User: What shape does this take?
Amino acid sequence: MPSGLHPGLTICRVMRQTLKLKLGMKSGSAYQFSSKNSQWQQTMAECGDDVIFQSSLDINKKTHQVQLTRTHITWDVASPGKPSRQADSPSSQPFIGHSQCKHVPLQEVIAVNIERSLNKIFTPKPNKKTKNASTPLKDSPIYIELQPVHAVSFSVHVVKRCPNHKWKKKKVTFFCQEENLCRTWVEKLEEALSNPVLRRPRSLLVFVNPYGGKRRAPRVYEESVGPLFDLAKIKTHVITTTHAGHAKDVLSKYDLQSVDGVVCVGGDGMFTELLNGLINRRMSEVGRTQDVTEQPIAPDLRIGIIPAGSTDAICYSTTGINDPVTSALHIIIGDRIALDVCSIYNGNQFLRYSSSMLAYGYYGDMLKDSENNRWMGPKRYQIAGAKKFLANRSYEGEVSFKLASSSDTNPLDKITCHSGCNICAMSKHSQEEKGSDGWHTVRGKFLAVASFTMSCRCLISPIGPSPYCHLGDGTTDLLLIQQCSRIQFLRHLYRCSTTNGNQFDLPFIKVFRVKEWSFTVPEISDSDSDVQSQSSSSSRASRSSTHSVWNCDGEVITSTSLNIRVHCQLVQLFARGIEETDGTATQCCTSCCNVCDPEDKYTSIGGHT
Assistant: This one.
């Protein structure tokens, strides 16, 4: 070090010189810091939806009046002509907004965090002339940029609605004049978000299926979902499954009291595995067996699903899209919706639970054939479907079903199930009061027999094979496709792939809304067996031509004769149902606020509860 150069004095001298340069002043001139004089106010309320906290904050260099109530956070531009609230005249009434007012429910606040900034010490980049030259310390000044060490701003991350039912995260940053005000806001917001009424999860058990769909589940979780859970301060225990039934085995022994929900990153089959694992665990805890006479007990935990499968029909039917971020945000904010579940028996032997689709014939053959080509990903269903369509094979069978009462809806009423569905809301309380007109039987040759507990929307069927099926009305839609020609069946498949066709309005199709049903295959007599053996190349080919398999939520069931019962709203899912998007009534408040953001591409930063 050169003589006479004290390191402490040198740094102080450089700091002073840097401040002068940043302020645009010459060395030795007089200068002083100027700050904007402002006052902030706060009020507390004891009950109702009164204001919990309020003050003046800056957003995008504009002063706003910001209020926090027990259900919303609201901010409005503080115009020059608008009287500001003083500390000596508190008010517990929320202010009335106008076109600049933003009104976001706390239920749709993802997280809140303090924006921190630290001092940065850096040196200028060397130019080409001095890049390799060695210069003494006195010729290499140290630059120190002073930035606030204390927190003077905080960010609120909220749900932002986009087209096609997609959700995104939007960040709104509020700037404060004082550090204490900033920390107070964060404390108040975190306290409001921890309200038990919101039922937001704080700890989750996550299963990642690395083999489903296009095998993208690990990447989806690491890049899109995990960071959101960390932002919301949700503790996670992540388990990567290694074999079929792995998640079910874990759930049978795991301490479920330590988590608020179970999440799977995968497809519909992975979700069904969690469903069966949780119900089996609950039944074993109370010492009850699962048979045809027992009513299953609803599990205490909600189930979440992050779409990473081939069809993702459950995500499409409950959120309207198979977007991982959208599903993760539903989990974070604690959404919940009750789903019907079907129990499946072979005689008196319990097989499994189903939550979406159970199909025999065409759909079962398609799944069985596609299992040999899993390496192809979702395209295997298209190839297998084309093969089985050309085969046009029908199967003998007898279908018996118990119709829902006349007071229920029917699968042709064109009433779709949306978020806040009144039919589902009333069904749970009126199940015992509803009757039935007894059992009905249909015999014949069927190209397909299928029941849908939800609409089963997917990418290739935007409205689903049963578009008016409800998520929680205690019924399932039974679809019978009788033997027909390829052209006739193609008409049905085409209408399923469009949004403006009625796939049930065909003479060879019958659809019923039922509470319970069964399917049996008639026994083949010895004479019939001899005839079939003569007309086929082998007895094995004869067997495959007379019997199909069942497609149960993307998994194969080989038993042919089944009994199915529907259990109303047996499980809870981290979702809220498909939100209606026709018109703007669901996007904006008509009286006190407007959530439209003119600076954004999309129209809403938060909905209403």
Summary: The domain at 199-335 is CATH 3.40.50.10330 (Rossmann fold).
